[in-house]
């Protein structure tokens, strides 16, 4: 395992209409590492995911994957390099079946290693394989979204608030799945409000507030840090 | 040099008039997010209304303005309830409305040919004032000044409606975010019907002056007017009534200057402007980012 | 579903070929059949873009005209034989499409209107009296020296079948899968590794090429024409209505729509054009309100897979 980080963000910034959503953020991750990205609403967590996955372009700064600059690459290229993500509001291919949704990602990611059957089973969608995506429940659509990402055999997976709306047993299953993924070498950035869920899968969190990195370290230390407490509670 | 001055001054008047032509489309698109591709045909109907009033009934064509307002109420209300709820429930309301209103445009054009004949009709300029008014050593017919004045008054009226009245505030809320407006208890349907009626009325009113500013009216002018209106509202930024005036001025000056110096290419102006603006700056001169369609 | 050519598709192509190959022996109005084939091709070409990517080219006729003029100018100035000139016409349309490709950045209605404006610009430039010496201006062009009704008929038949074959390919192939994904959610499609910019450009160029070839062959067939005959908005409208009526996103939708409505047009429309405008206008309104997916959607209700 090389010591070079898999992902590096170097002074990345992004503004919308003059408001800095992400302001000079830097961090690095190694292969297989799991990082929780937490912070109050509007702190720039989803924007960071958008910047890494390429949905949004950086204003300044660099994003390096295995040492190569990718901040100018288009999203589909980043997928082919092994970055993928889930969406807070799932966006499946509504008029295609569950199986077809996975098939598209398998076909076009140009990456080996994923197996559609395993993915469907792991996500509890095997029985729904021939149902149209639009007829799934919201939870199932979230799982399908994750399945699409997994079908591209990512080496870096960005998870955007997948916990919302899941019941405790579903949360446990997803947490276990994510841990299994990380043990197999997939790096994860998990944006999440549910701190118990984050605690289950990782030790290492980055706290954002108003686009700025407030804290990086263990969750326990974060919850004792006065700046972090102030950010979450206000004042 | 006088040629340039004439073109500039004329362009301003022509442009202000065209702001009135375009503003109805702006309102409808801004509020309902639907493209009224039949907009130009409604303007055309206003023009024929004025002609009928004068040529068949011997009345002053200016009465076309109240006629347009009345017509808009009579047509707008049933049109809205027949069409819009259904469209809003469909998968892609914006494109479907595009297609539907396009069909409506064809229907209106065909009916106009039946009722009025396919020939051009004109009105003697004196009907709206026998003289001409000068400004900066250029003379323009009364009808042009009247058209520009009516435009200014109407657009200011719309601006005050949107900024000073309760209904107007609600309308702007709907224009900004329809779903949110719905859940705040605003009667979105009522706001939209009113906006549609106002949009049609403004189109009809503009139509009254078409025989004077464009020389004549015939059933086929609708499509060109719709495209020009589009160019104007996009230049002026969607949803901003005062922006439409800016768009109209750009259009008017551009047309007049082209007409003066390269007249055989002047019919390209509306289309050229449209293509340039959507490629270079689709949010218009006053670039407020669009609500994502 | 990933087979290249299903039996149903082969039958469709075969029947289409047979109809237009054999009918001239029974019905002498070859010109009508030719025009019908032209519209089937245009409706299908329109369908390739709208039905599979969601972009509505309201100015589709621009490519038709570009092909007609490209072909004619090659015949007149470069003295190329007809077939080479027709291919040149197709190329002209592709060049026009490349120049207009920035329009693909626009969405929905903006694209549609801008496309209409672009085709109008092309028309007004070509028809401008100032360019009469180059393009014939408003007086049109005359390429009678290549007049060949039978050859041009056969050529249009081939192009029509070719266009339908492309539609079959779009329905059944991996390429088509990517298209459907892109149309249903273009962000997720990117996150599935699909290069949506390249994909929609390719479809755009193919759709333009088809219209260009059709335009070139049409010019070859009628030999003498004014700019309005190949740039008229009505041609776009026909292609769009025919395809929408039959059902876009399918192979046979545009074919059926074109045959049905063009037959209707030739029965009542040529003699009474204003009635036809009223009819197809009302048809569009009714379609948008009640049958937005076209006539074929009636069959889908009964669970017949029309793709």
Structural description of this entry:
The complex is a heterotrimer of chains A (235), B (293) and C (307). With 235 residues, chain A is an alpha/beta fold. Chain A has a domain at 1-74 and 188-235: P-loop containing nucleotide triphosphate hydrolases (Rossmann fold), CATH 3.40.50.300. Chain A is built from 9 helices and 10 strands. In chain A, strand 1 (7-16) and strand 2 form a beta hairpin. The termini of chain A are far apart. The model of chain A has no long low-confidence stretch (mean pLDDT 89). By secondary structure, chain B is mainly α. Chain B has one domain (2-107, 144-280): ABC transporter involved in vitamin B12 uptake, BtuC (Orthogonal Bundle), CATH 1.10.3470. In chain B, strand 1 (132-135) and strand 2 (138-141) form a beta hairpin. In chain B, helix 1 packs parallel to helix 5 (142-164) and helix 1 (2-32) packs antiparallel against helix 8. Chain B starts with a helix and ends in a 13-residue tail after the last helix. Mean pLDDT of chain B is 87; it is low at 289-293. By secondary structure, chain C is mostly helical. Chain C is built from 15 helices and 2 strands. Chain C has helices at residues 7-26, 30-53, 61-77, 82-100, 108-126, 132-135, 149-172, 174-184, 186-190, 196-222, 227-231, 233-246, 252-269, 273-290, 296-301, and strands at residues 141-142, 224-225. In chain C, helix 1 packs antiparallel against helix 7. The A-C interface holds A 53-55, 74-76, 79-80, 84-85, 87, 91-96, 100, 103-105, 107-111, 145, 148-149, 151-152 and C 174, 177-178, 180-181, 184-185, 187-197.
Which descriptors apply to this entry?
heterotrimer, B: 293 residues, mainly alpha, ABC transporter involved in vitamin B12 uptake, BtuC, two-stranded antiparallel sheet, 11 helices, 2 strands, 72% helix, globular, disordered C terminus, C: 307 residues, two-stranded antiparallel ribbon, 15 helices
């Amino acid at each position: 395992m090389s010591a070079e980080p898999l992902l590096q963000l170097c002074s990345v910034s992004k503004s919308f209409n003059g408001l800095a959503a992400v302001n000079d953020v830097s961090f690095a991750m190694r292969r297989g590492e799991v990082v929780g990205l937490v912070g109050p609403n509007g702190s720039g967590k989803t924007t960071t995911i958008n910047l890494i996955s390429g949905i949004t372009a950086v204003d300044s700064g660099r994003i390096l994957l295995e040492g190569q600059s990718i901040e100018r690459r288009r999203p589909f290229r980043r997928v082919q390099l092994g970055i993928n993500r889930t969406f807070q509001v799932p966006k499946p291919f509504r008029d295609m079946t569950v199986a077809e949704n996975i098939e598209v990602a398998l076909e076009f990611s140009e990456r080996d290693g994923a197996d559609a059957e395993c993915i469907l089973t792991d996500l509890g969608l095997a029985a729904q394989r021939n149902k149209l995506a639009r007829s799934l429940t919201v939870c199932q659509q979230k799982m399908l979204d994750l399945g699409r990402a997994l079908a591209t055999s990512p080496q870096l997976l960005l998870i955007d608030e997948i916990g919302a709306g899941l019941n405790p047993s579903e949360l446990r299953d997803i947490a276990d799945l994510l841990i299994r993924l990380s043990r197999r070498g997939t790096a994860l950035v998990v944006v999440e409000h549910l701190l118990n869920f984050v605690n289950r899968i990782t030790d290492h969190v980055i706290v954002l507030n108003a686009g700025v990195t407030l804290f990086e370290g263990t969750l326990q230390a974060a919850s004792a840090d006065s700046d972090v407490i102030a950010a979450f509670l206000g004042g | 040099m006088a040629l340039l001055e004439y073109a500039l001054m004329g362009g301003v008047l022509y442009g202000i008039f065209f702001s009135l032509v375009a503003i109805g489309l702006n309102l409808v698109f801004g509020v309902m997010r639907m493209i009224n591709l039949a907009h130009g045909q409604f303007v055309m109907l206003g023009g024929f209304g004025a002609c009928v009033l004068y040529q068949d009934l011997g009345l002053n064509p200016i009465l076309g303005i109240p006629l347009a307002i009345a017509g808009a109420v009579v047509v707008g209300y049933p049109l809205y309830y027949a069409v819009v709820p259904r469209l809003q429930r469909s998968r892609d309301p914006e494109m479907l409305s595009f297609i539907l209103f396009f069909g409506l445009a064809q229907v209106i054009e065909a009916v106009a040919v039946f009722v009025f004949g396919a020939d051009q009709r004109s009105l003697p300029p004196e009907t709206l004032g026998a003289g001409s008014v000068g400004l900066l050593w250029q003379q323009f017919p009364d009808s042009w000044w009247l058209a520009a004045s009516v435009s200014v008054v109407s657009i200011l009226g719309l601006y005050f409606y949107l900024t000073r009245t309760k209904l107007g505030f609600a309308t702007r809320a709907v224009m900004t975010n329809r779903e949110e407006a719905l859940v705040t208890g605003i009667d979105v349907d009522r706001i939209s019907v009113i906006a549609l009626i106002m949009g049609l009325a403004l189109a009809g009113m503009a139509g009254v002056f078409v025989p004077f500013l464009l020389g004549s009216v015939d059933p086929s002018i609708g499509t060109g007017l719709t495209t020009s209106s589009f160019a104007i509202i996009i230049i002026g930024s969607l949803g901003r009534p005062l922006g439409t005036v800016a768009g109209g001025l750009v259009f008017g000056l551009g047309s007049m200057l082209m007409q003066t110096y390269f007249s055989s290419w002047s019919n390209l102006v509306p289309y050229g402007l449209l293509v340039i603006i959507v490629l270079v700056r689709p949010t218009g001169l006053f670039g407020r980012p669009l609500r994502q369609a | 579903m990933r087979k290249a050519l299903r039996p149903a598709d082969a039958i469709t192509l075969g029947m289409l070929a047979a109809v237009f190959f054999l009918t001239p022996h029974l019905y002498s109005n070859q010109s009508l059949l030719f025009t019908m084939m032209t519209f089937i091709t245009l409706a299908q070409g329109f369908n390739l873009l709208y039905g599979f990517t969601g972009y509505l080219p309201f100015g589709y006729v621009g490519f038709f005209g570009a092909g007609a003029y490209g072909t004619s100018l090659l015949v007149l100035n470069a003295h190329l034989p007809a077939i080479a000139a027709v291919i040149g016409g197709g190329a002209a349309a592709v060049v026009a499409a490349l120049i207009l490709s920035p329009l693909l950045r626009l969405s929905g209605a903006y694209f549609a209107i801008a496309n209409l404006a672009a085709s109008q610009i092309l028309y007004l430039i070509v028809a401008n009296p100032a360019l009469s010496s180059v393009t014939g201006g408003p007086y049109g062009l005359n390429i009678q020296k290549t007049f060949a009704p039978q050859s041009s008929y056969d050529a249009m038949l081939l192009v029509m079948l070719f266009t339908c074959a492309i539609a079959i390919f779009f329905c059944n192939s991996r390429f088509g899968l990517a298209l459907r994904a892109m149309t249903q959610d273009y962000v997720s499609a990117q996150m599935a590794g699909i290069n949506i910019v390249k994909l929609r450009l390719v479809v755009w160029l193919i759709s333009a090429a088809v219209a260009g070839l059709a335009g070139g062959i049409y010019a070859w067939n009628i030999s003498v024409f004014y700019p309005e005959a190949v740039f008229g908005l009505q041609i776009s409208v026909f292609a769009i209505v025919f395809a929408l009526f039959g059902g876009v996103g399918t192979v046979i939708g545009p074919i059926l729509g074109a045959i049905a409505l063009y037959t209707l047009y030739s029965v009542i429309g040529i003699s009474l054009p204003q009635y036809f405008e009223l009819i197809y206008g009302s048809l569009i309104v009714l379609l948008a309100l009640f049958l937005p997916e076209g006539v074929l959607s009636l069959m889908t209700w009964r669970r017949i897979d029309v793709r």
